[in-house]
Amino acid sequence: MTTHTNKHERTGARPGLILAVETSCDETSVAVVRDGTTILSNVVSSQIDTHKRYGGVVPEIASRKHVESITLMIDEAVRAAGIRLTDLSAVAVTQGPGLVGALLVGVVAAKTLACALQIPLIGVHHIAGHIYANRLVRELDYPLVALVVSGGHTELVHVPSPGVFRIIGQTRDDAAGEAYDKVARAMGLPYPGGPHVDRLAHQADEPVPLPRAWLEPDSYDFSFSGLKSAVLNALNQAKMRGDVLHPASLSKGFQDSVVEVLVEKAIRAARSFGAKQLLLAGGVAANKGLREALSERCGREKLPLLVPPLSLCTDNAAMIAAAAFLKWESGELSQLDLKAEPVLSLEEWSVKTPAKLAGN
Ligand code: KG4
Ligand code: ZN
Asked: Which of 22, 172, 223, 351 is 20 to 30 A from 359 in CA distance terms?
């Protein structure tokens, strides 16, 4: 990455009016955000209804849907923000990780816009976006620890200073959201299954007892595939006995196991890294059981917990603009040969000159 001059640098002013594009999976989203904190617009077009009938995201269809809607979404975000394209300081885009064909649509659109407006381009790591969704809600206090739980990721991230990411734990197999979706599918629930399992879990009195994957005592890593297999076994055994397992009790058993491990490891990480805040991020942050358990534990530990509103937990472009602002402030801009990266390291994406940043 190199810095290239732009009209704002030439005049010495650095207004941070960033238009961001997010197309890494099955949501096409465009947002306009001022200074990484104030959302002027954040339009999201979900493809869930299309993918639902296949029981999961079909990459080819996702790319095609992004192509169909990206231009309209850019127009809509600019209109809803009440700005002109020429007011923009920079264009940001999710560079990765994600589905390569889907990412490519956003990257090409963002490059075209940056090129036409002659303003800088900023490639953003999707998970940095999920974490910085919290900056759209409240000021951050460092060092902090973030628990990122989505359909593709489950990570504990230590953030010692603005824009610097150290992964301290991650899933060794399925992501939390992926496990939710697979378990839901086995129970005959529609895609995405997470919200259905969450809802059912709250209707049960007694959970079906299921194991917890703690791994080694000092590990911050996660594993959900054993739990998923335990659910499938419980379903099969009940079927062979001619019984029916109550979906609510099974959902509660599964959710209790996922939530207990996530909460315990997140609290232990926050304590051992001296975190001033614990941030929750990603689509599974919408989970009611997880929110309740974390807020109860954080209350007891007197640890401030930040959880974005539901609309900022699932994929959206405002969070991408919030993360892009870190790079805008430090002057680490992307070049027009930016590539879509289906696999991209969060640690390597970290801001290189955090000292320049202020007020994040
Ligand atoms: O962050 P996200 O929108 O997309 C990715 O980047 O993966 O997360 C989507 C995931 C899906 O697996 C979905 O089932 C899960 O978040 N999810 C939930 C809930 N709402 C969404 N999982 C559990 N409980 C929920 N309430
Ligand atoms: Zn996501």
From this structure: 22
pTM: 0.92
Asked whether the predicted pLDDT for residue 8 surpasses 80, the reply is no
Instruction: Give the distance (Å) from ligand 2 centre to CA of residue 33.
Output: 18
Rounded distance from Cα 314 to ligand 2 centre (Å): 6
Other beta carbons within 10 angstroms of residue 204's beta carbon come to 18
Q: How sure is the predictor about 54, in pLDDT bands with cuts at 50, 70 and 90?
A: confident
> 């609309």: which residue's tokens?
311
- Structure tokens, 26: 């099955």
* Ligand 2 centroid – CA 282 distance (Å): 6
Smallest CA-to-CA distance from 34 within 71, 81, 73, 79 is with 81
Out of 180, 187, 197, 288, give the residue to mutate to test ligand 1, the one with the largest number of ligand atoms within 8 Å of its CB.
Answer: 180
Ligand 1 atom closest to residue 27's alpha carbon, by position in its atom list: 3
d(C-alpha 175, C-alpha 154), whole Å? 5
